[in-house]
């Protein structure tokens, strides 16, 4: 991770949406991705805030978690399957 944080946080409605769409729980599964010892974190700039994307392994599949430092916490924005270029970066590292 490229920044320090006290804890993780997320939007409960977004959590429920992601669970229904992708069958992953950002409250639990995103932490597995973020804690992958081989995970790759890169800056993912947005107009309104600094965001990062971390690609890591969950259940033998690569996932990407979008997150941002907010009020001393790691705010999970979303979680999705890794794109092809993110997979290449992960395996080349």
Question: Major beta sheet, specifics?
Answer: 5 strands, mixed
Radius of gyration of CA atoms, rounded to a whole number = 12 Å
Class by helix and strand content? Answer: alpha+beta
The overall strand count is 5
Question: What oligomerization state is this entry in?
Answer: single chain
Shape summary: globular
- pLDDT < 50 stretches: none
Q: Which fold name is given in CATH as the topology?
A: YaeB-like fold
CATH class designation: Alpha Beta
- The topology string of helices and strands comes to EHHEEEEH
Mean pLDDT: 93
Percent of residues in helices: 25-40%
Strand content: 35-45%
Count the helices. How many? 3
Q: Describe the strand arrangement of the main beta sheet, using strand numbers.
A: 1-5-4-3-2
Describe the structure.
- With 93 residues, the protein is α+β, with helices and mostly antiparallel strands.
- It has a single domain, classed as 2-Layer Sandwich (YaeB-like fold), CATH 3.30.2310.
- It contains 3 helices and 5 strands.
- It has helices at residues 12-22, 29-34, 84-92, and strands at residues 8-10, 40-43, 52-58, 61-70, 73-81.
- The chain has a 5-stranded mixed beta sheet with strand order 1-5-4-3-2.
- The chain starts with 7 loop residues before the first strand and ends with a helix.
Main attributes?
5-stranded mixed β-sheet, 3 helices, 93 residues, YaeB-like fold, alpha+beta, 28% helix, 5 strands
Topology:
Elements: E1 8-10, H1 12-22, H2 29-34, E2 40-43, E3 52-58, E4 61-70, E5 73-81, H3 84-92
Parallel strand pairs: 1-5
Antiparallel strand pairs: 2-3, 3-4, 4-5
């Amino acid at each position: 991770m490229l920044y320090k944080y006290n804890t993780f946080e997320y939007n409960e409605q977004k959590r429920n949406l992601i669970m229904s769409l992708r069958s992953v729980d950002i409250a639990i599964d995103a932490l597995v991705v973020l804690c992958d010892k081989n995970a790759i974190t890169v800056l993912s700039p947005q107009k309104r805030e600094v965001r990062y994307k971390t690609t890591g392994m969950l259940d033998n599949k690569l996932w990407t978690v979008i997150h941002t430092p907010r009020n001393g916490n790691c705010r999970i924005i979303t979680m999705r399957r890794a794109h092809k270029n993110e997979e290449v970066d992960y395996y080349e590292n």
